[in-house]
Specification:
The protein is α+β, with helices and mostly antiparallel strands. It has two domains: 3-141, Endonuclease, Chain A, CATH 3.30.870.10; 150-240, no CATH class. The chain contains ten helices and 15 strands. The strands form four sheets. Strands 1-9-7-6-2-4-5-10 form an eight-stranded mixed sheet, sandwiched between helices. Strands 11-15-14 form a three-stranded antiparallel sheet. Strands 3-8 form a two-stranded parallel ribbon. A hairpin with a 4-residue loop joins strand 14 (203-206) and strand 15 (211-216). Helix 7 crosses helix 8 and helix 8 packs across helix 10 (232-240).
Length: 241
């Protein structure tokens, strides 16, 4: 039977259904500004093989938010110009509510919604899935991967995602290794190239939708003695090199 949700319970149940998702996760929200916890959970699900789709409806998404999605192209980002619905869905549960996936709304607004279960609310869940699927299919997929400039093509430069694929790691794990190796640094929630990576030929570029990094295809990945010995990302990189 459907359960009524308040502002606080929506946020709690949303995190729970994300954590429990096994195959598919669809987040539909006109306004989008994910908090750090939700981002961390989405990356965890992506790396465990869950198909993650995010649909938003307002063009004025911050550059920093678009840049974050560009770093993780395995998270499918879609734009729907007339979107007003808010729905967060897995294979087993769906939250239909007034809450946008926007930090301000989650903290400051009074929200409400309902939780549907595939087992207990079979018809309502099926109807919800049909409508959400229709929204996804009619939306525009935002392609993260930049069209490489002549400069990038000439020097065989790779995006972070393509370099990760070449090595055999996920993008998020490679970025974790780069942070620990001093190739990237974190300022707030954004990543930046360091002087060390720039000296090796890494470049920062701005694409149509976001910022991204380019790396030499033969980038030296020697792990220095100053790298953290307890870093799981560096341990993974060592095994692959």
């Amino acid at each position: 039977m459907a359960k009524f949700l308040t502002t606080t319970s929506i946020s709690y149940v949303l995190e729970e259904i994300i954590k429990k998702s096994k195959k598919n996760l669809i987040l539909v929200s006109p306004y989008l500004k994910l908090n750090a916890r939700i981002k961390e959970m989405l990356l965890s699900k992506m790396d465990s093989g869950v198909t993650v789709r995010v649909v938003y409806g307002k063009k004025e998404m911050a550059d920093s938010e678009l840049s974050w999605f560009a770093e993780y192209p395995d998270i499918a980002l879609h734009y729907s110009h007339n979107l007003h619905a808010k729905c967060y869905m897995t294979d087993s549960y769906a939250i239909v509510c007034s809450l946008n996936l926007y930090e301000y709304s989650q903290v400051n607004n009074h929200e409400m919604g309902v939780l549907l279960s595939r087992n207990d609310d079979e018809q309502a869940f099926a109807d919800c899935f049909t409508n959400v699927s229709s929204i996804v299919k009619s939306s525009e997929r935002i392609e993260h991967s930049p069209n490489l400039t002549p400069e990038a093509a000439a020097y065989d430069l790779l995006t972070t995602a393509n370099l990760a694929k070449k090595i055999g790691m996920s993008t998020s794990d490679l970025e974790g290794a780069f942070l620990d190796m001093g190739y990237l640094e974190l300022k707030g929630t954004n990543k930046y190239l360091t002087n060390k990576s720039k000296s090796l030929g890494a470049k920062f570029r701005k694409g149509k939708y976001s910022y991204y990094f380019l790396w030499p295809h033969d980038l030296s990945l020697e792990i220095g003695s100053d790298a953290p010995k307890d870093s799981p990302f560096i341990s993974m990189l060592r095994r692959l090199l």
